[in-house]
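Appendix B. Raw example, untouched.
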Amino acid sequence: MNLLLDVTQSTFAASMDQKVSEYNHNLNDMTRVLSTITAIYGPLCVISGIMGMNVKIPGSDEDSYLPFILILIVSLVVVVIMLLFFKYVWNRR
């Protein structure tokens, strides 16, 4: 009887460990997705916040679109670097 109880307890503990590991894996996947979304939308929110302010943006007194284009290019470069980081470096961990 004691042996049967030990085997049952061991089986139950192993199945609970498996469930906890599965939940942890799902949580890690969700965290990775949410942090990727945050990394993409974070710089875009900063740009929209800068453009939405009622103050002078450096270079806005010019009649050209050069400052806006520079901000856009820098933002795109940052997004591409983040995407490459998440694709190649993040997946190795």
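End of appendix B.
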